[in-house]
């Protein structure tokens, strides 16, 4: 019969600590990626595109029954068409613009102010651990690099989550507002020069950043597991 030496027990404690650290990193990464998000692969500045809002249910006990998306008033979007979602009813609200905007279709005096989606029944709600996507064909989109869409999420137990916080500095807000990254029009290639003479480049969207982050976590996990095996194998044994 053999028993573990102090060195081996110490190695086991190190391995356990490493595993706990890996678990904490994975939990944090999952939480960070579980926000309400918006993407638009064909959305360009000044053009039209499909905006896809991804809505996960973060609650462990309640389902998502409603989602209300506020459209920007400072950079108005003239029109929006809803892609139907089975079991959900969508309502598009508009408001009159204080200053009309000119598009290829003429002068626009109203713009989209808000879109509400509501589940028609409990069976259509987004259950814990699930997500739903809501798509909108919208435009003309503003000639800006980003558009923010504050979003109110409603749960079946009556609680709400307001995704409206703005990231400042390096700190990640608890409930960040969904931000759409707008690409330059297809005709524009390469970097552009701003009015100040500096070169401006576009940065990858949140989706690309998330993929890179997940790959990094996987590599770190593999490296830690290799280190754990090396520690355990390298610990000496002695016979009782």
Summarize the model shown.
By secondary structure, the protein is of the alpha+beta class. It has helices at 6-32, 206-234; strands at 2-4, 37-39, 49-56, 64-70, 79-82, 88-103, 106-119, 131-139, 146-148, 151-155, 160-163, 179-181, 192-193, 199-200, 237-239.
Can you give a write-up of this model?
This protein has 240 residues and is an alpha+beta fold. It is built from two helices and 15 strands. Residues 18-32 and 192-212 have low confidence and may be disordered.
Q: Could you tell me the radius of gyration in angstroms?
A: 24 Å
Could you name the ranges where pLDDT drops below 50 across 5 or more consecutive residues? Answer: 18-32, 192-212
Mean pLDDT: 78
Biggest sheet statistics:
5 strands, antiparallel
Structural class: alpha+beta
Query: What coarse outline follows from CA principal-axis ratios?
Result: globular
The number of distinct β-strands equals 15
Strand order of the largest sheet: 6-7-4-10-11
Order of helices and strands: EHEEEEEEEEEEEEEHE
Query: Roughly what fraction of the amino acids lie in strands?
Result: 35-45%
- Tally of individual helices: 2
Residue share in helix: 10-25%
Measured between the Cα atoms of the first and last residue, the distance is: 6 Å
């Amino acid at each position: 019969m053999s028993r573990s030496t102090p060195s081996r027990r110490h190695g086991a404690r190190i391995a356990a600590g490493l595993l706990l650290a890996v678990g904490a990193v994975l939990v944090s990464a999952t939480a960070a990626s579980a926000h309400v998000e918006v993407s638009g692969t064909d959305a360009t500045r000044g053009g039209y595109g499909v905006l896809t809002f991804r809505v996960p249910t973060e609650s462990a006990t309640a389902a998502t029954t409603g989602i209300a998306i506020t459209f920007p008033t400072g950079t108005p979007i003239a029109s929006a068409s809803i892609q139907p979602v089975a079991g959900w009813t969508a309502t598009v609200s508009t408001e009159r613009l204080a200053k009309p905007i000119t598009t290829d279709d003429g002068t626009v005096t109203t713009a989209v102010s808000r879109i509400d989606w509501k589940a028609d029944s409990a069976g259509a709600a987004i259950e814990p651990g699930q997500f739903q996507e809501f798509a909108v064909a919208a435009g003309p989109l503003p000639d800006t690099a980003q558009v923010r869409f504050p979003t109110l999420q409603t749960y079946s137990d009556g609680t709400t989550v307001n995704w409206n916080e703005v990231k400042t500095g390096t700190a990640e807000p608890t409930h960040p507002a969904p931000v759409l990254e707008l690409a330059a029009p297809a005709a524009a290639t390469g970097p552009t020069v701003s009015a100040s003479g500096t070169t401006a480049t576009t940065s990858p969207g949140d989706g690309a950043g998330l993929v890179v982050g997940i790959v990094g976590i996987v590599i770190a996990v593999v490296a830690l597991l290799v280190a754990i095996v090396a520690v355990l194998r390298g610990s000496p044994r002695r016979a009782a």
